[in-house]
Amino acid sequence: MRRQSLWLLIAAGLVLAVLATPLLLRYVSFFRVRQIELVGVHYHSPDWLLEALEIEPDQNLFAGKRRIERRAIELPSVMRVKIERKLPGTLKIVVAELQPVAFLTTPTGLAVLDADANHMGYDPAVAGFDLPFVEEPDSVLLLALASVRSADPALFEQVDAASRRRDGTVVLQLGQKQVLLGGIPTASQIETLRAVRSHIAATGRSYDQLDARFEDQIVARGNGD
């Protein structure tokens, strides 16, 4: 019985030691953060992101983790964040950014929009942006663009501008060509559109407009149509 009690005391002591260690280490200057690694950052300016996280100059590796995570997740363009420690003094911040879908011209310059028509706070000057232009923050139009980006990234990359007509038709402008959608397309509809575009390219044909507004067919129109 005494032996069992002794083991329980030892186990409790080890648990307390494990729990207390991070609290004690946060006061040890040896674990001061000397380097910060940003992973998954494609659209933010690293300097802007670090400033937004407000990491202290004397930040300790074992202090402030939750505070930094909370500040990161409060940013409108951050979906998830994970902070890892690399001893003795490297803080690794892994960020999952929301994908932008369009540029909007505003009186103060270009704004980057997400699928919900939110201004994302991204700096358009940062490398990695290749987005279509929209004339207004239309949620249906932006959701249509997000659907295209998810199901057919190659098509999305060719879209220079997008708009929505009064009848609800979404118009994707691909240089001199157009693709018409009947609103927010499904993944199946986009896959059918991709197959049609691939067939046209493989047969050496051309088109001026692909009309994908119909449920069971896609109509290709040329100059004479």
List the keywords.
225 residues, alpha/beta, Ubiquitin-like (UB roll), Rossmann fold, 2 domains, three-stranded mixed β-sheet, elongated
Q: Biggest sheet, in brief?
A: 5 strands, mixed
Work out the helicity level.
25-40%
State the distance separating the first and last CA atoms.
94 Å
Given the structure, what is the number of helices? 6
Tell me the number of structural domains: 2
CATH topology of the largest domain: Rossmann fold
Which descriptor suits the 3D outline?
elongated
Strands of the widest sheet, in order across it, are 7-8-9-10-11
CATH architecture classification of the largest domain: 3-Layer(aba) Sandwich
CATH class of the largest domain: Alpha Beta
Mean pLDDT: 83
**Structural class estimated from helices and strands:** alpha/beta
Query: Strand percentage, roughly?
Result: 15-25%
Polypeptide structure, described:
The chain is α/β, with parallel strands linked by helices and 225 residues long. The protein folds into two domains: 69 residues, membrane protein fhac (Ubiquitin-like (UB roll)); 120 residues, Rossmann fold (3-Layer(aba) Sandwich). Helix content is 34%, strand content 24%. It contains six helices and eleven strands. The strands form three sheets. It has a five-stranded mixed beta sheet with strand order 7-8-9-10-11, covered by helices on one side. A hairpin with a 3-residue loop joins strand 2 and strand 3. The protein is elongated. The relative contact order is 0.09.
